[in-house]
Amino acid sequence: MPEVWLPYGTVEVPINVKVENVAKIYTPNIKPLDENVLMSRIKEIEFRGKSLILLSETDEASAIILKSILNAAKVSSTVTSITVGCERSIYSWLKKACEGLNVDVKHISASDLVEYDTKIFISRVGLDPLFGFSGGAVTLLKTLNPTFMAEAFKYMRDSEPKPGKETDASLYAYSEAPNILGVEYIYLGNILVDVAAGELINAHKQISQNLLEICEINLRSPPEAIIASAGLGKSAATLASALNSLWNVARDVEGCVMVFFAECIEGLGSEALRLAATRDVESYLTRGDYVDGLEDIIYLRWLSKRTKVGLISTLPRYYVNKIGFDYIRSASDALPYIFRHKGSRVKIHIFPDAESALLTLTKEE
User: What pLDDT, in 10s, does the model give residues 124-152?
Assistant: First the structure.
């Protein structure tokens, strides 16, 4: 009986599954971006005057791209000054990342943007259930505008998550975004895979399509069972961040049984999930009063009508059940849970990193 290792927080855990029970194990086909290709794309940026480089992520890829942009800007004869900015929560990380680079580092608000002639926003593209894709205008507005999500929530047209699809909410984000430059990247499995640079929205649309081509997995028939992991590190740190990965493999799964691995070492991660687990979120849904993560509550209710999902995490059983999952104690209980609902001959689709997958179904005519 072979072992399949699944990411769980900062470690990997094994599940022992028979070959005859495995439909397929899905891993993305990716390779690192060539350094010369990165530099050629960065050189397409036109700098002038007082320049601002704004960051939103604290991963290694963001730091690499920042240094590449700084190197390009410093040889430009049209640049008079360079500031590197971020929101207050990642200021300490950015300050350390810029040590020895001889640049001004500061936390930036939306009102500060008018001071600069060239404005460049570095962001990571990802799949998102409300906007289709994160990164670009969506991440910029989340960073600079504290009311953006409450407004974008009004453009949520139904209860189904839509990762990988352009939505009314994403169109709203495009309409609200300032006219600045974007450098957007794909970062999967701690590998910098691709970069697009240019006008913010154009760069976002280009890199989003590239991500879709990497992640999309098309099935001809609905899966009987799925085992998926939210991945390692940040994506699995809270239930809120982990759910972004779950939605990627939760489309077209009616009648399926799912087991989801998400350590959630930092807890629930959103106010809506906290309310759902400890008090009552119903009044917010009824009135449409937005609190952080309210869209996930709607998606969870949509999912619960279509499939059973067991959660393996560090969260208390009471929280897990109250939010709408079945509680599974450990990795060794994953297969018995599936067999109990689907029988011992079930075929299981396994996603070791659901963050880098997008499950779709093409129904046979």
Answer: 999 999 999 999 999 999 999 999 999 99
Whole-model pTM over 0.90 = yes
What is the topology classification, in CATH, of domain 3-27+220-361? 2-enoyl-CoA Hydratase; Chain A, domain 1 (3.90.226)
* DSSP H or E segment with residue 303: helix 294-304
**Residues in the chain with pLDDT < 50?**
none
**Token pair listed for 177:** 């975004």
Q: Is 363 helix (H, G, I), strand (E, B) or coil?
A: coil
For domain 35-212, give its CATH number from 3.40.50.11440, 3.40.50.300, 1.20.1250.20, 3.40.50.620.
3.40.50.11440
- The pLDDT of residue 285: 87
Residue 152 near residue 169, CB atoms below 8 Å: yes
Would you list the domain boundaries of the chain? 3-27+220-361, 35-212
Distances (CA, A) of 308 to 103, 227, 256, 343, 362: 52, 12, 7, 15, 22
Cα 303 to chain centroid, rounded: 19
